[in-house]
Amino acid sequence: MPKLNHIASIALDPQTVGKFYSTIFQGTYSRSLIGATAREGYVGLNFNPLWPGRPGPVGLDHFGIEVDDINNSFANAEKDYPEVEWVKRSGTRPYAQVDINDPDGQVVNINQRNIDKGVSEVKTGSLYLEEDSAEPRPRHVEYLALRTPNPARCSDFYRDVFEMTPMNRREDEETYNLTDGRVVLKLVPWKINDFDGMDVNRPMLDHIGFKVEDADKVHQEILDYNGRFPPMAAPCWLLEDREEDRNRAKHMKQIAPDSKYQYCDMNGTCFVTND
């Protein structure tokens, strides 16, 4: 089975936002000289710095999938998706050996299981050598939403290349959902008219959905955590004060109608909570 093993954001202050996510969602926090990671037992939330030569903007940037046979993935991509290409990652990243683009241009890190553990220990402080929790923890990543112009074509790509499993959908449903058995990838149609009343985002990763045991309790914990910071420096805020924030929250709730709270962190990465 494939595994959606990390979600990466570009951050102005990786350590601050990494500590926020690891604290609120009860994950393992790890930092390097330049970045930070919060891992919730299955998915790593990676926060990379915005530095010269790294493309922006800040916020959600890419995600990674682990496969059993990387050459099989390449063969399937080459066979049916001529618009797809891949390139070896620079440096030594045990959780991201190759970059590949999907049919609409979203970058995905792909790596193969059973990589050299010595490399992992050097580069990640053993974070990615942790055993996955047998069952989802009370607070965990439930899904990742990607807005893309051609969700049907991309759904076929993630099924064929990564062997993710398509989930049942109604004939009139525009969103395509695939799962690795634990985390759902939501492929949502990107339409510029959907951004009426707010800044337009290009086709890109949209937000993260967290499943929690009690969304009201988590919300209070976020308020308490934010209280440690000056008002304009809090790591996260609820999308409710400005009209554009409310429009953005409504936009996200269309994808996740059961979500209870919609937030945005200090780098523009949005997420929802649902119990």
Summarize the structure.
With 275 residues, the chain is α+β, with helices and mostly antiparallel strands. It contains six helices and 16 strands. Helix content is 24%, strand content 32%.
Low-pLDDT sequence parts:
117-129
The CATH homology group name: 2,3-Dihydroxybiphenyl 1,2-Dioxygenase, domain 1
Structural class by helix and strand composition: alpha+beta
* CATH uppermost class: Alpha Beta
The second-level CATH architecture is Roll
Percent strand? 25-35%
Count of all domains:
1
Could you name the CATH topology?
2,3-Dihydroxybiphenyl 1,2-Dioxygenase, domain 1
What report would you give on this structure?
This protein is of the alpha+beta class and 275 residues long. The chain has a single domain, classed as 2,3-Dihydroxybiphenyl 1,2-Dioxygenase, domain 1 (Roll), CATH 3.10.180. The chain has six helices and 16 strands. The strands form two sheets. It has an eight-stranded mixed β-sheet. Helix 2 runs antiparallel to helix 4. The longest helix is centred in the C-terminal third of the chain and has 13 residues. About 5% of the residues have low confidence.
Could you name the key traits of this structure?
alpha+beta; 2,3-Dihydroxybiphenyl 1,2-Dioxygenase, domain 1; 8-stranded mixed beta sheet; 16 strands
Layout of helices and strands, plus pairs?
Blueprint: E1 3-11, H1 14-24, E2 28-31, E3 36-39, E4 44-49, E5 59-67, H2 70-80, E6 86-88, E7 98-101, E8 107-112, H3 117-124, E9 140-148, H4 151-162, E10 165-166, E11 176-179, E12 184-189, E13 204-211, H5 215-226, E14 236-238, H6 243-255, E15 261-265, E16 270-274
Parallel strand pairs: 1-4, 5-8, 9-12, 13-16
Antiparallel strand pairs: 1-5, 2-3, 3-4, 6-7, 7-8, 9-13, 10-11, 11-12, 14-15, 15-16
